[in-house]
Design goal:
Strands 1-2-3-5-4-6-7 form a seven-stranded mixed sheet, sandwiched between helices. Helix 3 packs across helix 7. The chain has two domains: about 60 residues; about 190 residues, Glutaredoxin (3-Layer(aba) Sandwich), CATH 3.40.30.10. It has eight helices and seven strands; from the N terminus they run αββββαβαααααββα.
């Protein structure tokens, strides 16, 4: 074979080898591109999943960690009365009323149930009269009651989202208290609320979610720190007093109001 033919053959082989290398490099580049695409898509998916998971965790953590609020006027005994939820209390009556009554109550307390049955109408008359403000501290004492925090959450939900119905619903929760309701869950409280005329969607959703259960827990801790470990506990103008029956309570309020 002549030298020229040998050189041509060698050149052809070199060109073939170069083309094969180019194809191999292109294939490798394609594989790297596809791998990078998979990694980017996978990374985005992980970030999205992380955001969703974080949102779910935040939702779960904040659920039951809210505080009810309300500042309005509601009808009580034919009068329009200031209604305010602030701090640990649901208050009916003006902030500057001559007589300030505080009542620590738990929906799981049988004595509270009896006291409400005996005095609810008297409290309503006193509030409607205009000289009295009643601040209800809703707590979970005795702590072994399973109904108390659920009912407390329901009460807070109505106070925040359907305040005009709160006073009647407050008493209805006591009437409803029984050994059977100790086994109730949130959906049963929601159904009970509906039967009592509670129709505000946010009120019913709050009952279902247990949105204000932490508020009841915080109220309980504050009450215990303040030295109020029994329910019901009655205070008149900031001073703890014995539980007065309805007529004696009305007489005492009239004395304090100066009328």
């Amino acid at each position: 074979m002549s030298q020229d033919k040998r050189d041509q053959k060698a050149g052809s082989g070199s060109r073939t080898s170069a083309r094969e290398r180019a194809r191999a490099e292109a294939a490798a580049a394609g594989r790297r591109g596809r791998l990078m695409q998979v990694l980017v898509i996978g990374g985005v998916a992980v970030v999205v999943i992380g955001i969703i998971a974080a949102a779910v965790i935040i939702s779960v953590v904040t659920q039951g960690r809210q505080t009810p609020t309300a500042d309005t006027v509601v009808p009580v005994g034919g009068a329009q009365v200031p209604f305010r939820v602030e701090g640990s209390t649901v208050r009916l009556g003006p902030a500057d009323a001559k007589v300030q009554i505080e009542l620590y109550e738990s929906y799981g307390c049988t004595h509270c149930k009896d006291y409400d049955a005996a005095t609810a109408s008297t409290f309503e008359e006193l509030i409607a009269g205009g000289d009295v403000a009643v601040s209800y501290h809703l707590v979970h004492i005795p702590t072994e009651s399973r109904y108390a925090p659920l009912a407390g959450n329901a009460s807070a939900a109505v106070a925040a989202h359907q305040p005009e119905a709160w006073l009647a619903f407050h008493s209805a929760l006591f009437v409803n208290q029984s050994a059977a309701t100790e086994g109730w869950q949130a959906p049963q409280l929601r159904d009970f609320a509906s039967q009592q005329g509670i129709a505000a969607p946010e009120a019913l959703a709050s009952i279902d979610e247990g949105r204000y259960t932490s508020w009841i827990k915080d109220n309980t801790e504050q009450a215990v720190k303040a030295g109020y470990r029994k329910t019901p506990t009655l205070l008149l103008n900031g001073q703890p007093t014995e539980l007065l029956p309805a007529e004696a309570l009305a007489d005492r309020v009239r004395q304090l109001a100066g009328s």
